[in-house]
Amino acid sequence: DSETAADTDDHLIPRLGLPRRDFIKAGAAVGAMGTLAGCTGLLDNNGDGVASASDVDASVPPGELDEYYAFLSGGHSGDVRVYGVPSMRQIMRIPVFNYESARGYGHDDETREMLESAGDYTWGDAHHPRVSQTDNDYDGRWVFINDKANGRMARINLKYFETDAIVDIPNTQGVHGACARLPDTDLIFGVGEYRVPIPNDGRNLDDPDAYESVLTAIEPESMNVVWQVRVDGNLDNGDGGKNGRWFFATDYNSDGAVTESEMARPDTDYLKAFDTIAIEEAVENGEYEEINGVPVVDGTTESPLNQGDRPLVHYVDVPKSPHGVSVTPDGTYAIVSGKLDPTCTVVEIDRFDEVDDPNDVIVGQPLVGGGPLHTAYDGRGHAYTTLFVDSQVVKWDIEAAVDAERRSEDPIIEKIDVHYNPGHLIAAESYTADPQGDWLISLNKLSKDRFLPVGPVHPENDQLIYIGDDDAGMQLVKDTPAYPEPHDASMVHRSKIDPEPVYDPEDLETEYVDVDDTEVIREDGRVHIKMTSQRNEFGFHDVTVQEGDEVTITTTNIETTSDLLHSLAIPQYDINVKLAPQETREVTFTADKPGVYWMYCAYFCSALHLEMRSRLLVEPEE
Ligand code: K7E
Ligand code: RUQ
Ligand code: CUA
User: Looking at the whole model, is its pTM more than 0.80?
Assistant: First the structure.
């Protein structure tokens, strides 16, 4: 049942001129009736008397730039995509856990060694890209992203929009949530999803009671694992409080089950609130067990460290198989969604210090609809929650949910249909203390009939929704096909990111090769070729090596002009190293195939680009 943009008028709230509370109630009442009268709203730029998508200006004409960067995870593609918002144009892809040839990622020695030393996997499952913050605002330094498949965390350097570190986290498998301790991103948390034996070396194979999951804390500059906490049940998504103390993670498998039907059985599972300051004190006091070089603190319910008046981990009962958790911009509440229960649970964070029963931190539980997954914010007191089952985004009032009876629809302001089955959603700067409140993207898992058919593998659909006018209501503005499979995203105003147009050679590990440095060094079966690349030639027209030589080629793109890339591609040796202006990269291989190999440049760099090629001559062994 597909729907056109015009149909979204059905979801508009009439502008009633009522005081705030009454407006909310009126909106909820009308919403419950299913259809709404035509809107006389403010958002009527085309003067047709109705607020609709055509009143929203999301155009970015040729030559103009977008207002926001959106960083979307690529899921099991293993990369991160960069969109401009509101155009929704995909501007760049950043390989992270995947080998990628256009950027030469995993082809040069440095990135290949980074991937090899981080477990030597060829893929990852990237879910949660989180941009670093200072004082609860984006600082443009890094994006952190998890690998759900192999238990890793990676860091993207926003100076160059490239992955510069990956840590393979011990004692865990399937790191799902990824998030920072705020306000200043002084720790990154990897939320361990799968319960496994620790260490997972063949012991306790079929003894699920002995499996454990851990939360991992990573220091962002060094990307070193600094501590872990073991917990009962599992861990899923996570989000940080705003004041340097709390971290929250959901648990959809409180029984520690190993089959789906058992996992879904309990009526409540957990929200776990980690008191990271108390955990750090336990580590300082030596109250840990060292496993695989990491201090592991016991945060299970039975742990002595959890019995006093300052427990390390608070276990809150929330319905049912909870998934998303996100902290409100002002840091007051953590909002949790129970996938199998049509409610969100509102937890008041300050109450953890006040209550004896951890469940008394729950202050609200609005009835939002089928399959709530993730929640975003506009900075005006509203929450926007994706409803996977209902294929909708529901907008609700957070304080109204605190005031209302539990399981009441009163806090609901409106719902908009999305196409189809949304996972995450992201609003502009929603993860900071100051969301912008204009754009929201619903990351829909299924697109079904929204694009030209391309066979059985469909794209996802990232839908842009305007949320800037509360009176007019949410406006669906555009569909955007996405290669599988974005999960979460972060949207950052362009003023907060300032990438370099060319490399600063000081930032690179490999020494710059200038025209005068061009040389071939031969020593004991090792050949080191140092050369330049520039329009339209490499530093050597031909180089001869012997079959079996270990060859290292160091190449600098000595151009200073922005956007003038070259590459060093070597056919049949499986090599393609990209070289941005002022970039130096090194590649090492064994010359095991005698013959002539035309090393060429794969980036179209000038009218004589095709002529930019040199011969690698591999002499056969006697
Ligand atoms: Cu809901 Cu990995 Cu955040 Cu997918 S997770 S949707
Ligand atoms: S050549 S312009 Cu292969 Cu047609 Cu590139
Ligand atoms: Cu250099 Cu093409």
Answer: yes
